[in-house]
Amino acid sequence: MSLHALKILERRRETAPESDKAVFCLRLACTEPYEPGDWLMVQPVNPQRTVGDVLEALGLTGAERVTLRRHGEVPVFEALREHLEITQLDPAMLNRLQRKEGIGDWPDRQAMVDYAWHRDLLDFLCDYPDARALSLKLIDYLSPLAPRYYSIASACCAHPGEVHILFKHVVHMVCGREHPGAATTLLRESPVGSFVQGRIQANKGFKLPQQGEVPIVMIGAGVGLAPFIGFMQARLREGAVGENWLFFGETHEKSTFLCREQLTGWVAQGALQLATAFSRDQAEKIYVQHRVLEHADDVRRLFAEGAYFYLCGDKRGMAPAVLDALTQCLGEDKMAQLKAENRLQTDIY
After folding, report:
1. Span 109-123, pLDDT tens digits
2. What region holds the FAD-binding FR-type domain (predicted)?
3. What percent helix, strand, coil does the chain show, rounded to 5?
4. Which of these CATH numbers, 3.40.630.40, 3.30.460.10, 3.40.50.2000, 2.40.30.10, describes 4-38+150-201?
5. CA 314 to mean position of chain CA atoms
6. What is the DSSP secondary structure assignment for residue 283, as one 8-state letter?
């Protein structure tokens, strides 16, 4: 499917200026229909500074020509800026380089996956300087620049002609160097009124129940809140009468309470039951899984009433901990029942 030019209408910071997290709500013009739970697919470009550093490391000017399978012959600068992955490392690329060029010392694929985590091409060129000698030849090993997926934070019925997303500007610190994310840097730095390339991507495994009287339990941390904003907008517009529960986690109530006004407004209306976990506001860290355990009686009651459970966020830390908490509340048999009845749906990354 083709991409569309999406105009940026507004970019609103959701975290306090003093916070070490920069999370934004981005409003874009969009004529494509979508459903709550769907994704916005954004085609990124690589940060220009990162492109320049890669060219320097490889001894290239950027004017050299390379042939890409989908784009034909283009200058190396364009290839690195618009078409090839350099802010992330693809384990498949590492595997090819080790097999064909003898560069790398990973014993198996898992070792490659572990090495690639939060590293970019510049890290690789620093750790394995022999790869620099490949110069232009290294370009042939790079993977295509992949689109990035963002959970949609709006409902069509509430915001016709628009699509909203939450995004955290990603800047990892590895080996004393900043690693800017390709898409989040684009989304943060592109001026309001400019365009980004993207399209709607259906997420058929993360959908509201068809019956409005069915309760829903939403569990998310950080920007994992996004789809639940769309869920709530849709439920309220459609007059759904089932209970809406949200377990939301972040670091500090004062500075990182995302979408605070909207969430507390729904609570004041009696439309939402909200349990928050701000992990660093007290000596002992509290996460969403702890709030789930504190509400074990409610979790069991909602399960018995046919509730759907939704989980969105980090697959490495939060998701396993929340699934374990739900299992402690319900037991393995009821968890298996939830999955069999498609009442446990996840959007984790």
Report:
1. 999 999 998 899 999
2. 1-209
3. 40, 25, 35
4. 2.40.30.10
5. 8
6. S
